[in-house]
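Record now logged underneath.
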Amino acid sequence: LHPPVSGAYLFQLTANGEVDLRVSDSENAGNAVSIVSVEGGDSGTASSESVSLQAGRRYYFEMECDSSDQPINFTVSWKMPGGMHRVVYGEHMSPFQVR
């Protein structure tokens, strides 16, 4: 994850199954912690507490999904400092590099 500006971010997760969004304080996957989850049901939305991120740094993030009987659809948005909620697009992400 590549935040475009420094400051406090709020994440919002919408999903139709059990989904957990985890974010690390660095590129290290081992430091990732759950910041917001949606628990089962037909559809749900949940918001995180504020997460401090710095522009120019890379942060590991992952989604853990669990659905026994249907495909899972989810959307992750963030509220940047001084902005409004927007979907996190690919321009703010890059593939995780295993080392």
